[in-house]
Amino acid sequence: MELRHLRCFIAVAEELHFARAAERLHMEQSPLSRAIKELEYQLGVQLFERTTRRTQLTWAGKVMLDEAHRIFVAIEQAKASVKGAASGYRGCLRIALSDGIAQSRLATLLAQCREKEPEVEIRLSETSLSQQIKGLHSDLFDAGLAQSDDVGDGITAEPIWSDPLMVLVPARHPILEHRRLPLDEVLRYPLVLCHPEACEGFWRQVKRVLRTVDAKLIVADRAPTLDLMMTLVAAGYGLGFATEAQIAGCRNPDVIARPLAGRSPMVTTYLLRPDTEPSEQLSRFIDRVSPVEGQAPNPATIQ
Q1: Is residue 298 part of a domain?
Q2: Number of domains present in the structure of the chain
Q3: Do 43 and 97 belong together in one domain?
Q4: Which of 5, 85, 110, 266 could, after both became Cys, cross-link 39 (CB 3.0–4.6 A)?
Q5: Banded pLDDT at 240 (limits 50, 70, 90)
Q6: Phi, psi (degrees; rounded to nearest 5) at 219
Q7: Residue 260 carries which DSSP code?
Q8: Contact (Cβ atoms closer than 8 angstroms) between residue 178 and residue 271
């Protein structure tokens, strides 16, 4: 099995269309089909179910896709380790990020790490929560930051930051007559929500808040990133949700952030790590990840 086989497989598995996968790889469709057949022959399994109308992954293909992604992550980590050693680093921490961790929080933490241990490289990887958990189990990551403590056995989840949940509102929206927004009033309008797979942990916490009101959600769109959510809210597609810390690092003059009425619900960020004795480097990193005071509202976005 060669890396070219895996690259071809990933393209087809993600596109679920041989012509689009071939275009993505800048190759003809015939050699792409041969590469997939060679891979299936070498593995002795069928990876795709193909008909004239569609292409789907088999269960073996779904498992293979996860493994192929991990192989390329490991290769990239090996390259980075060699380059880091050549640049003078004497250690490395592999940290996974999920759920749109606030830039301001992360920047403060990384600055502390660089100041205290400049010889230790901090290598960041953005990934989904499920991939982060798999990576922690398989030693692809040393630790991770996410917004869920539902991580199963073998992983420790420690709460580190809590931030108020805010409502993102298009400028000149009628709901802005309220200084603090009643949730039942918010849910009368279309919503731009985070994508449940891209921001799995954040969505779980937001969903718990939304379920406190007996109302059917009007979902205008699902956004995989806060930047896109801000854009859609600014364009008037609907109202969105983000934490105060997230908003501080993603400003848009056409979006107003308002708190919810009553006691503001809080969104918690967790440090995830394998439930084993941490290395000395990881122990020092854990010590630096501690709750910090919330940032002051930004007058350009919170009114």
Answers
A1: no
A2: 3
A3: no
A4: 5
A5: very high
A6: -95, 110
A7: B
A8: no
- Shared-domain flag, residues 261 and 171: yes
Q: Are 231 and 210 in contact (CB under 8 A)?
A: no
- Domain hosting residue 281, numbered range: 89-159+269-288
Q: How confident is the model at residue 101 (pLDDT cuts 50, 70, 90)?
A: confident
Q: What does each C-alpha distance from 125 to 73, 74, 151, 236, 302 come to in angstroms?
A: 9, 12, 18, 32, 31
> Do 159 and 147 touch, CB atoms closer than 8 A?
no
Tell me if 297 is assigned to some domain. no
The token pair at 240 is 């969105």
Looking at the chain, the whole-number percentage of residues with pLDDT higher than 90 is 58
* Chain segment 243-253, per-residue pLDDT in tens: 999 998 787 88
**35: domain CATH number?**
1.10.10.10
Q: Are residues 8 and 62 in the same domain?
A: yes
Looking at the fold, whether 134 and 172 belong to one and the same domain comes out as no
Report if residue 232 sits inside a domain.
yes
- Beta strands 219-223 and 266-274 are unpaired
290: its two tokens: 């501690």
Neighbours of 294 (CB within 10 A): 15
Rounded to 5 degrees, φ, ψ at 169 are -130, 135
Q: Specify the pTM.
A: 0.70
Is there a single domain that holds both residue 125 and residue 193?
A: no
Nearest to 244 by CA among 214, 267, 275: 267
Kindly provide the b/e burial profile for residues 190-200, where b requires at least 16 CB atoms within 10 angstroms of the residue's own CB: ebbbbbeebbb
Strands 219-223 and 191-194: parallel
Is position 177 within any domain?
Answer: yes
> 136 and 275 share a domain?
yes
Nearest to 267 by CA among 192, 165, 182, 160: 165
